[in-house]
Amino acid sequence: MRILFTGGSGKAGRHVVSYLINNGHRVLNVDRVPLDHPDVDNRLADITDAGQMFDIMASYAGFDEMEPGNGVPKFDAVVHFAAVPRLLMTSDNECYRVNTIGTYNVIDAAVKFGVKKIIFASSETTYGICFADGDRKPEYLPIDENHPVIPEDSYAMSKVANEVSARSFQRRSGYDIYGLRINNVIEPHEYKENFPEYIANPSVRRRNIFAYIDARDLGQMVQQCLVTDGLGFEIFNVSNDDHSVDKTTKELIAEYYQGVPVGDMDENETFYSNAKAKTLLGFKPEHNWRMYMR
């Protein structure tokens, strides 16, 4: 597929782009800084500028595409990851502005250019736990996509707003638009760097609901979205199968979630349910921290 990818230079994006390239896709990266990858061309652009996004949506992905003389090819899919990536990086209103206006511009341009597969990055923060003031517990466990999304911070608010906008674009266009509520992304080198602390002090993972997603498995998730057609508008949690700490489900519930309703769960099953992605997309996480922390 010929894919326009926004935010491919970021922590999560660069791993997903590499995964897609390895699966035979052509990727054009749109970001504020270039991605240093031999098989990727870059466009440096501001997603909050609608004109720039409309121009790039009708752009060559490289000089080689000029050779056939057939005009600019059409993108088969858009994957939108570009954003202010978390709270406390910019002012709150700037975070909200960039994330909402940027997402509107990207999806608007994609729909108007007839790109019928759009995947966008939402967030675990939409459930209102990660950036809450104090200790806010989930309404039930495991958290699935039906759990209420009532955040209290500008970053998570922007992600909820983007989901609403995407649903509206899908209703008018009929295209496939899938939103990914991505859990805390772990790069391969971070297992040895960070997980000893997670094991020694599990409470540092409370705001992430003790969950994580390996960056390579996130790439697989995007790939599965690209090859699965006809779902219309869908939201998916994205996580690995297990907790990010060396405690069992039962132990974590006893220590952190007393009084929270809990469904049937396996001994190490993630509190951030990925069951929907497995059922509808065939998602099968391949990496877990125990593989790299023996």
From TrEMBL:
<feature type="domain" description="NAD-dependent epimerase/dehydratase">
    <location>
        <begin position="3"/>
        <end position="194"/>
    </location>
</feature>
<protein>
    <submittedName>
        <fullName>Nucleoside-diphosphate-sugar epimerase</fullName>
    </submittedName>
</protein>
<dbReference type="Pfam" id="PF01370">
    <property type="entry name" value="Epimerase"/>
</dbReference>
<dbReference type="InterPro" id="IPR001509">
    <property type="entry name" value="Epimerase_deHydtase"/>
</dbReference>
<dbReference type="InterPro" id="IPR036291">
    <property type="entry name" value="NAD(P)-bd_dom_sf"/>
</dbReference>
